[in-house]
Amino acid sequence: MYSIIRLRTSSKNHLSRNMSSLAPGHILRGTHWSYQISQPLRGDRTQTSSIFKAEVIQACNDNSSTTPRWASIKVASPSDPISVQNLAREYQVYCLPAIASAKCFRTFYDLIDNKTIALEWLDTTLAEVEYQPTTYIYSLISEVLRALLQSCVILEALGFVNTDYKPANVLLSRTKTNDPTAKVGDLGLAVFPAGSRFNCQPYAMRAPEIFLGQACTGPSQVWAIAAMLLSWIRPGILGAWDSPSKFIDDAWSMAKIKRLFPHWIIPTPDEVDDCVLKAVVEGAISCSRDVPDLQAILPFEEETEKVEMPQQLRDLLRLMLVVSPFERPSAAFVLSSKEFGSFEKITKEGSIVS
What we know:
Pfam families: Pkinase. With 354 residues, the protein is α+β, with helices and mostly antiparallel strands. It folds into two domains: 4-120, Phosphorylase Kinase, domain 1; 124-349, Transferase(Phosphotransferase) domain 1 (Transferase(Phosphotransferase), domain 1). It is 36% helix and 17% strand. It contains twelve helices and 13 strands. The chain has a six-stranded antiparallel β-sheet. The chain has a three-stranded antiparallel β-sheet with strand order 9-11-12. Helix 3 packs antiparallel against helix 5 (218-233) and helix 6 (249-260) crosses helix 7. The radius of gyration is 22 Å and the shape is globular.
């Protein structure tokens, strides 16, 4: 049973709508179209809203050929202030013209009421696609990288960052073709002013500087995108999924970065003022040196040789995975780099050699 959701005050409807009514067949009326609920959808357990797939119903006097067939309906729970806040933030983000008009973000359709929005429907997410060394997958990776890096450029120009790049937030369609679509979704939980968020980003995607107490900025996004792809291609290579205790998740994740990039200098406890961070860096140094499971992780070049991928993709990931945020390239630089151009070229020409 869903919680009650109240509509905006309007001349047409002052009544509350019980979310249990959002069963298949229920119709929501928006500004542009109406939406007939098809089915509820399951997220990745981090979403704060309920999600539904809905069929778009074209108005009788609307002869537009661009009316989409499907939409995604996102409903915040009024009993959960965080859910309501995230939905409101997502709507506010979409009110920014640069984001509303950008093809790299999922398209916003309708504000149905103050706790319900309608968004573009895409078929799946990167989390639901398995990495395979095929031309389709390499074309998909190219499209994902372009969309995510373009989203970084737009957000940085607006003074924002996305703190939640992860496979479940990368929305996809036409994945088994040479012309896939990739877009960034779930902006409400992710987009914040640059430099305002600490201790953020999922563990596997978290940039080294975030672990060391710095704020999330533009360079942190670049690391997150590359780390996301590396973790998707080589599951478990980053992050805390196999950490023996939640109390050492930070240290465990840092140790993995240290194993992949041995030149990363983790501060000693004596060089850190914060008492919690002292324990974390001490644990990270110890884990990277002494834990057998982590000792099995080789430096980046050797580790990525364990999985089949084009050298151009390996070079591109290496370009982005620079441990120092001051030396890490910007998203705009990556998009214009020879490494990105080389990878994009082989995916279009089909001249892929691992």
